Amino acid sequence: MGEALERHEFGAEVGRLLDLVVHALYSEREIFLRELVANAADAVDRRRFEALTDHALSLPADAKVRIVPDKEARTLTITDPGTGMTKAELAQHLGTIARSGTAAFAKSLADAPAGDKPSLIGQFGVGFYSAFMVADRVEVTSRRAGTEEAWSWASEGKGDYTLAPATREEAGTDIVLHMKPDAEEFLEPYRLQTIIRKWADHIAIPITVARDGNDEPANEGTALWRKAKSEVTEEQYADFYRHVAHAFDTPWATLHWRAEGAMEFSALLYVPGMKPFQAVEGERESRVRLHVRRMFITDQANLLPPWLRFVQGVVDTEDLPLNVSREMLQSTPVLARIRKAVTNRVLSELKTQAKDAAKYEAFWDNFGPVLKEGVWEDAENRKDVAALLRFRSSAVEGWTSLADYVSRMKEGQEAIYVLIGDDTGALAKSPQLEGFRAKGVEVLLLDDNIDAFWPERLGTFEEKPIRSVTQGTVDLSKVAGGAEASEAADVTLLLPLLKDALKEDISEVRATDRLVDSAVVLAAPEHGPDLQMQRMLRRAGRGAGGGLPVLELNPRHPLIRKLAETAATDTALFEKAGLLLDLARVQDGDVPRDPAGFARQVAAALAV
């Protein structure tokens, strides 16, 4: 070839950029391998594409990306059989960094949080230069496919580079990193394989790492989600689920599809068959993995809303740059459209699976409380999520839906009634249900923490208002049926006396017709939180939060009859009023205001 070594200056601005890459990104050094492997895979893809029209450029049968660590020579070599580069392309791609916007990169690097810094490398087109985080000299030898000529590019990352003639038997590129003394970890084959599995496990071309003279596979080499469903076995689906979810169970549902048209992406998602060891109630972010052209980018793209965070898997698109910052992930319209499409697809799958009641019950037992969060926080999907909810009921065995409840509503019944507490077994025995049972009106029993919040946010279902039986007055007079009630006592005098005695603890005392066997019951004011929400607020040290409760009396109960008859002359009415209130609290699963005093009063009453 006879051509002499050529030396070229990067320029002052480029020197500053190299200094930023090497030092500002020091804590994320492993990212260099992702960048170089991604470049190698892209080069192979370009050659494969070019070979469609020029068969002379076809890839060798054993095409792969080789990673060869050499501890003695302190070098790490990355070799690919891709399209390669000419002398001009080496100078253009590796010698003219300034075209990528050095000033913009420097500013973004300075402003970005630590976790976003690695993404900025590729975003500004300087991914190759991350090699200088671990190497004090980088040599690139490349031969363009379809040519006989090879060239070598070399630099120590200090402001200049050289170009020189070279030899390479086949088309492709070799990158040799002369490792820094403190980068020895990247000469360990196991460390290299771990990085590849993390960042590039499913790049289509095989990636190998040399160990003891043998090339050992470092990636699966097959993007399972990009295959047709007919080409994937159940065993392969299950194996990939256990890999991506770090789980040991069998998935409850597998969703595999490809979206084409205005946006294109492939997705392979799983609904787990059991709760993870780490409760999903605590972690609020979706961990579905985002890939771009098979390359893993992040599992923090929030591809699904928090109320679907139990879903595991991969979404792979070509409509995003290979490296995309977190800021861009939040703002790009492409990802917003993908998020919406993926969410709708998961909702559609849940609707389909819900038709099999027995199978859906297994899902609901695992993830029902998480799904309910969607009713509370997602206005766009609220109605669709509400249709997927399941509940225990005062009227039927097993689980029931809101739609099934509406289909069973009694003539004259105007609302969907719910009772919220801590345990469905206790709720089923609550005196709050007596009047509803007498009228044959069904009540849904809710015992998840989120149940204190979402019913008010949903408001209605199929145009039927949702009402807590403990909130405000409940009028069941329009509902047909029920046994004929006995004559009610006149409590006109009793009500104000009890209210005066309990004025520190209740807002009102009133008669009610929703009790049958019990003498008293508590209710919440018409406006404000129901009783369960008030209990939760008190436990959190925030007081009642919605006003004092209402004490309701059953004027047909023998105890209330007797108190009404003697109200004007009963000198112990004040103490009896306190007992009535504590009795109502105990019935509701709460504790007496003074448990020891309540016990003494009950003991005294029993001794009479």
Q: Can you tell me about this structure?
A:
The structure is a single chain. 35% of the residues lie in helices and 19% in strands. It has 608 residues and is an alpha+beta fold. The protein folds into four domains: 212 residues, Heat Shock Protein 90, CATH 3.30.565; 143 residues, Ribosomal Protein S5, domain 2 (2-Layer Sandwich), CATH 3.30.230.80; 79 residues, Rossmann fold, CATH 3.40.50; 121 residues, Four Helix Bundle (Hemerythrin (Met), subunit A). Strand 8 and strand 9 form a beta hairpin. About 2% of the residues have low confidence. Its main location: cytoplasm. Pfam families: HATPase_c_3, HSP90.
Question: Which keywords apply here?
Answer:
alpha+beta, Heat Shock Protein 90, Ribosomal Protein S5, domain 2, Rossmann fold
- Major sheet: order of its strands? 1-6-5-4-7-3-2-8-9
Number of helices: 20
**CATH homologous superfamily of the largest domain, by name?**
Histidine kinase-like ATPase, C-terminal domain
Number of domains: 4
Uncertain regions: pLDDT < 50 for 5+ in a row?
98-102, 117-125
Largest sheet: 9 strands, mixed
Average residue-wise pLDDT: 86
Strand content: 15-25%
Helix coverage percent of residues?
25-40%
User: Could you tell me how far the N terminus lies from the C terminus, measured between alpha carbons in angstroms?
Assistant: 118 Å
CATH top level of the largest domain?
Alpha Beta
CATH topology of the largest domain: Heat Shock Protein 90
CATH architecture of the largest domain: 2-Layer Sandwich
Structural class: alpha+beta
Radius of gyration: 35 Å
Total count of strands: 22
